[in-house]
Queue: 2 jobs
Job 1
Amino acid sequence: MQNHTSGDNSGKGHSKAERFSSTGFILTAIGSAVGLGNMWKFPYITGKYGGAAFFLLFIVCLLIVGLPVLLAELSIGRGGRGNPASSFFRLSNSKTWGVLGFISIVVPFLILSFYSVIAGWTIHYAVISFSNVLYESSDFTEHFNSFAASNLPVVWQIVVMFLTGWVVAKGISGGIEKFNKILIPGLLALLVILMVRALTLPGGMAGVDFFLRPDFSKLSTESVLVALGHAFFSLSLGMGTMVTYGRYVERQQSLGAASLAVGGGDLIYALIAGLIVFPTSFAFGIEPGQGPGLVFMALPAAFSAMPLGSFFGGLFFILLAIAALTSAVSLLEVPVAFVMDTWKWTRKKATIFTATACGLIGIPSALSVGGILGGYTIAGKPLLDFVDFVCSNILLPMCGLIVTLFVGYVWKKAGEEAGLSSFWFRIWMFVMRYIAPVLVVLIFLYSAGVIGFK
């Protein structure tokens, strides 16, 4: 490919030296995939759709859709050595595909604008849990509502954007990679500590039984689409992050092996998250299907009744904060890389500009959950929920479809870049041409509410 290195010197702060080490890349990609949604969404949907039966279905969906699309995004990034827009353009020599790639730059910017708000909540809750302020009253719903109605969410959102920008500004090896090499092992340690604590709670094993007992009668067409959607979104697909990270991957790195490692890391995190949430919920009679409400309103009640509850509660929210920050870093890197490439800015200047713009755009979302903008809705949804819905249910599947069609039908040297044998290449191409596009469209139709099941 003639354009492999054509993007390496775009931007003063964007030199050829910006490359991941092999281990650093895998940990960083896992950090991007591991996010807040897995902690409250995956256990809930697993329990709802058949426990271990759904978990097995999720693994199948990860193999059929998640990993092939992940490999495609990484290959596009390393092949084009640019941001999503420039990589799509270089590999196709088509401005149309460059424009389509640009959508994958807008999406993470919009996601980070509200994701940073929720990440801020986790840091706030970690602080007030360790200090025991959270447990001074037993009305945790009122505690959250009063917090959301104040200006503190904006303050914590700014803190998150500052921390995220600080990491990204330090570059790939000196910032993003070093950050993930410290935090991902730390995340695993916290997961294990909290899992052991949850499994030793009186009544906790009933939650494990509910989580992991296979009930194949609950599997349905809907459960397949839910598993497909979660396999797709839990790997950070469709948001330009894996394309952008792919540009920093060394030639000798096996993208196939890396994809398997990232998928495995995502799977382990989801499993341990379930072994924390369900035993804790069952031990204290909490309904586990409450989404974000489970984390900020229900689980604090469990921690308050637990020996050393403020300590374990603090660890839990630190765990969430780490998961949120590693994802936030990957989200910010996408538009920062684009700004560096387009305007030839240094990394520091591009990061300050992008993080500031994203933070300002996110302030209305921070004030929309009970704050002064709480009464303002778009399509019946508070601003934060509306932006989340548009990104998650419309733009992400659209970007995923663009990737599958590009690799399946447009980019002729995809297999060469992916480094697959002829056997695996034929399977990959079949998936990218005929299976993944159809399934991504079905995910989109289901997520957007166009098709549904009673």
Job 2
Amino acid sequence: MDAVILAAGEGTRLRPLTNDRPKGMVEIDDRPILADCFDQLRALGADAFHVVVGYRKEDIISHFGDEYAGIPITYAHQREQAGLAHALLTVEDRIDDDFMLILGDNVFRANLEDVVMRQHEDRADAAFLVEEIPWEEASRYGVCDTNEFGEITAVVEKPDDPPSNLVMTGFYTFSPSIFHACHLVQPSDRGEYELSDAIDLLLHSGRTIDAIPINGWRIDVGYPEDRDEAERRLRTASKPEQS
């Protein structure tokens, strides 16, 4: 699979860390977040990286160039911050098969391979990692609505009154059908073309989407304290166990 990395955001909530760099270039344990994303995707067998850039895009392009660890990189420019569905459409002409998608401000140490394996089973049009979080935090994310059997029936982006505390985590696999759904999405109340709305359209058209519970951890680096927590966890994980 190819991999798409969304890294166009300005990261206003991460200031002052993003005063002089894009969000994906904020360092965790002395490395840009994007480098960690690339490593995770490389371990999953990514054939190519397609990076969607925007704010201070030159910083990303000049740092990584046209390859990472032997894997080719292409860049697509999202000229306005109009939502994740809008960002994904910038690479539509480069994708002709199932692909991985990761949000370039997330740090994962989790079962991403389970999502990829589910997509390879050829029964799903999409799969994504989900996580139960505290209710008071759910309004920050794409929230999954479920039925009495625990099956996902809808997703909604950053709702004021979340229907559940089960949220999408920022790692997905899709078939190219997602692009058609992205074209159909209308601007949300926030004025953005939401990826969660495109996923919801797939659900309501009868497409099969599988949600994989997270096994491990992930941190959405939205605020400076999130960067600090991700760094703490990575450093703790790298310490040798005491006998």
